[in-house]
Specification:
alpha/beta, Rossmann fold, five-stranded parallel beta sheet, 18 helices, 5 strands, 7% strand, binds zinc ion
Length: 378
């Protein structure tokens, strides 16, 4: 089963369901995990559920569960079954989670608040939390959370991009995190717990989100109608590293085309390393000069090369038809398994260099020059 159709989050949902039913839900949470694994989707669905009248009536009335039912022992499946929005109360009717195409949208509910880092800023502006300098604590998220709930029930805030707090922003939030206004739930979303300031980390209950399984990525691509066939879904999922963000990136048609021409070039016995390096650099630079975008793009390029080499030496590896055909052709042209293993190792080194923040053009050039030399020597 998957809670509200969100893959891979059932265990976390059970914890929230049980704590809420027993009236022991905390106020401040920190969700961490790689991008594109469902943290935001989960936070939005959680917000809708916690705001629903079935799970919290109104201030003064509070929890709907009768005291003797709170201690009842329910199985995980029973918890999840009960912990869903009713879709009928005034709160549910105002909280749209999806649009017609089942894509998660930004909820528009008077007691739901969302803050994130604007794309053009490098940090989360402190004014979003506590208002402008000459208007401190008269606007911003902390101010909003101190007001009475519009619908008289709970308030939920989601603070995205928590990796990008500066000290001032973090300080502004500390008091609110430590003692959230009554019936207020605050969810911070970041990529890893270590990236959060210790003062923030220590005030939140931390929930970790794992990368999705390859099959889950493929399932989601199919469900969202992003691909035409299961085969393409599986092919894209192999490059996605368990992240939907990566999957969407790999889906970009420009990437698929480039990947094909690159693998074709790598299958040759003579690799024009200088020219090929130029093409890879251009491809990686095309989307943006921002390292944050270029790095995953290069990772995808290297992963497609790796998939090709694996298809040569691991003949039982599951690969798509195009790649298998190319690998066959390369083998028939005398491309040795041993050479493919060496090339795969060199490609893994290049992937590690990306994690170490090495200069991207340097990684690309040294990778292709050495690959060309390895292939020439066989
Ligand atoms: Zn409801």
């Amino acid at each position: 089963m998957s809670w509200m159709g969100i893959l891979g989050c059932d265990e976390l949902a059970v914890q929230f369901a049980r704590a809420n039913r027993r009236g022991r839900l905390g106020g401040s949470f920190l969700f961490v995990g790689p991008s594109g694994v469902g943290k935001r989707t989960f936070a939005f669905a959680l917000a809708k559920t916690l705001l629903c009248r079935r799970h919290f009536a109104k201030i003064g009335e509070g929890l709907v569960v009768a005291p003797d039912e709170r201690d009842e022992n329910l199985s995980d499946a029973e918890e999840l079954e009960r912990f869903v929005p009713c879709e009928e109360c005034e709160s549910c009717r105002q909280f749209n989670l999806h649009d017609e195409s089942e894509t998660v949208v930004m909820p528009n509910h008077p007691d739901f608040h969302y803050v994130c880092k604007p794309a053009e800023r490098s940090l989360l502006p402190v004014s979003l939390l506590v208002g402008d300098p000459d208007d401190r604590m008269q606007s911003g998220l902390c101010f909003e959370l101190n007001q009475t709930a519009f619908l008289g029930g709970r308030k939920v805030a989601v603070i995205d991009d928590a990796d990008y707090f500066n000290q001032e922003g973090a300080n502004a939030l500390l008091k609110t995190l430590e003692e959230p206004p009554e019936h207020t739930i605050i969810v911070l979303i970041g990529t890893s717990a270590t990236k959060q300031l210790p003062t923030i980390r220590s005030r939140c209950q931390i929930f970790r989100f794992a990368p999705l399984a390859q099959t889950q990525v493929a399932d989601l691509l199919m469900r969202q109608k992003k691909v035409e066939s299961q085969e393409i879904a599986e092919q894209v999922a192999r490059y996605a590293n368990g992240s939907m963000t990566e999957a969407y990136r790999a889906l970009d048609s420009d990437f698929t085309l480039f990947q094909r021409s690159l693998v074709n070039a790598l299958a040759n016995r003579r690799i024009e390393a200088v020219e090929l390096a130029k093409q890879v650099i251009e491809h990686v630079d095309k989307v943006s000069k921002e390292a944050i975008v270029r790095r995953p793009r290069l990772q995808n390029v290297l992963r497609s090369a790796l998939a090709f080499y694996r298809a040569i030496f691991a003949t039982n590896a599951r690969v798509d038809r195009d790649l298998a055909a190319l690998a066959d052709k390369a083998r028939n042209n005398g491309f040795q398994e041993e050479t493919a293993i060496k090339c795969a190792e060199r490609t893994l080194t290049a992937l590690e260099q990306i994690d170490l923040n090495a200069n991207l053009p340097y990684i690309i050039e040294s990778w292709l020059y050495e690959i060309a030399a390895i292939v020439r020597k066989q």
